[in-house]
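User: Can you help me understand a structure? I only have the sequence.
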Amino acid sequence: MALRLYGITPADAHHTAPEGTGTLLAIALVPFRDLSAVVSEQNAFTLDEPTPADLARHRSIVDALFRRTAVLPAPVGVLFRTPDVLKRWMELHYVSLTGALEFVEDRAVARVHTRRADGKQDDVESGSDLAADASEVFRALRRKSVASVPLRLEHMTGVVLSASFLVERDLWKEFESAVDEQQDAHHHLHFELTGPWAPYDFVRMQFGG
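Assistant: Let's start by predicting it. Here is the structure, written out as tokens:
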């Protein structure tokens, strides 16, 4: 019986099926030391291309876990042939997994996207102006977060236009205020803040080899 992996969580979270997943899948736990792998069973070990429905189910489960505990989201469609293979992988990466859980605990992801308010982004001058202002904005927001990663770059200058920020949960309102301050200081830009999200953008699991 193959196992589909959704994420890694602390074992002491004492999960039941995550709230919000309904009857889409039968969620199970594979424990290893103080970690738990959140999985579901499937009949065959087949590495098919994920469908939109697979993506939606995966995200609903990860987001439900995120609402109750620290979670390291797995990429969509990761399969293990047996529980023993999964446990061996958890043993091999135990130090990295526990360290990553400590890093994301009590933290959430904010995604910030910026664009010109007038929508003019196709010429070199507009692109350069936007890039310069966006660079200033994201430098200011990085000071209000634990870490950040770029999501989208301005195609002419390579400067970040969208970024993901890892924010302390109890400082979320402060980060929102920082985004509002940047909006007030840059009326010619439009900002979109989304979240809080699970740390999808800050987790890179190693498989194979």
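Now, to help you interpret it: The chain has two domains: 2-105, 107-201. Strands lie at 2-10, 27-32, 35-42, 72-73, 79-80, 107-116, 147-153, 160-168, 189-197. Let me know which part you'd like to focus on.
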